[in-house]
């Protein structure tokens, strides 16, 4: 286990590979651990990091640090201590919210943004995310398709207050103003069968930034990176091969993955 100390508390992280950096941020249910397959794939070309937010996994459980602001501060402290710069952020659920906040405040550091299962308003989030225990929520969302015992066990370590605090605060956030604060190229992914976050409407998608591409994963639930790993990992790799600021709308999903030829 790797860790750094921030304000006298432990932040757990893991890192694989060498090259251009990419940082994976987990959702409300889970921890860094479900990113392992994506990290292993990315590590053949890039340097892949994943962290546990306050209240999750092996990071400290300190209720005063569960606000969105404090989780963004955790990410900022991590980046500074590790000396990471010019990187791609991949955020899932809660991690997507934190990634957008960070990219908005540090646009010169974040080159690309991949956002998975982003809640376009609190009404798009299933209430079970807050009412179920973290362990039961992991069973519900991971389903029977993953022999992901370690990820389920890690979910049990979550302090439920970390989940409710984030949701309570997010209710006050103007999400369509938030997503336009980050002036970086972005890809937005949603699983067609996501049980936790409802599929965005056409009206909601109109709020996406200009340099943004929305892609639906037709065979995925809340964890596209686990349900359709080959598709997810190829997309991430092609996205990271784009130059910073290059329009991600040239990327598309087809039965045989390929980059558009213009």
Strand order of the largest sheet: 1-2-4-3-5-6-7-8
What do the pLDDT scores average to?
91
Strand fraction equals 15-25%
Q: Enumerate how many helices there are, as a single number.
A: 11
CA-based gyration radius: 17 Å
Helix content: 25-40%
Name the CATH superfamily classification: Alpha/Beta hydrolase fold, catalytic domain
Structural class: alpha/beta
What pattern of helices and strands is seen along the backbone?
A: EEEHEHEHEHHHHHEHEHHEE
Can you identify the CATH class? Alpha Beta
**How many domain regions?**
1
Number of strands: 10
Q: Quote the distance from N terminus to C terminus.
A: 45 Å
Give structural notes.
The protein has 262 residues and is of the alpha/beta class. It has one domain (2-259): 3-Layer(aba) Sandwich (Rossmann fold), CATH 3.40.50. It has eleven helices and ten strands. Strands 1-2-4-3-5-6-7-8 form an eight-stranded mixed β-sheet, sandwiched between helices. Strand 9 (251-252) and strand 10 (258-259) form a beta hairpin. Helix 1 packs across helix 11, helix 2 crosses helix 3 (94-105) and helix 5 runs antiparallel to helix 6 (149-155). The longest helix is centred in the first third of the chain and has 15 residues, at 68-82. The chain starts with a strand and ends with a strand.
């Amino acid at each position: 286990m790797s860790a750094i100390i921030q304000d006298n508390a432990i932040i757990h992280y893991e890192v694989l590979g060498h090259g251009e950096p990419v940082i994976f941020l987990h959702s409300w249910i889970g921890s860094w651990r479900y990113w392992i397959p994506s990290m292993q794939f990315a590590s053949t070309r890039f340097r892949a990091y994943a962290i546990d937010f306050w209240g999750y996994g092996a990071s400290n459980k300190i209720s005063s640090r569960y606000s969105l602001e404090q989780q963004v501060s955790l990410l900022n402290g991590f980046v500074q201590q590790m000396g990471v710069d010019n990187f791609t952020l991949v955020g899932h659920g809660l991690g997507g919210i934190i990634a957008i906040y960070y990219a908005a405040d540090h646009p010169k550091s974040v080159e690309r943004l991949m956002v998975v299962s982003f809640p376009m308003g609190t009404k798009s989030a299933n209430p079970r995310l807050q009412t179920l225990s973290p362990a039961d929520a992991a069973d519900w969302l991971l389903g029977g398709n993953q022999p992901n015992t370690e990820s389920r066990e890690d979910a049990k370590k979550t302090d439920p207050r970390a989940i409710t605090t984030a949701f309570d605060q997010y209710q006050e956030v103007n999400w369509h103003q938030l997503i336009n604060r980050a002036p970086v190229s972005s890809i937005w992914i949603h699983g067609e069968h996501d049980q936790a976050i409802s599929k965005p409407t056409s009206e909601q998608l109109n709020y996406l930034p200009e340099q943004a591409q929305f892609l639906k994963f037709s065979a995925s639930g809340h964890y596209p990176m686990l349900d359709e790993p080959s598709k997810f990992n190829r997309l991430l790799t092609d996205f990271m091969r784009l130059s910073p600021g290059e329009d991600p709308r040239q990327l598309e999903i087809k039965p045989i993955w390929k980059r558009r030829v213009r």
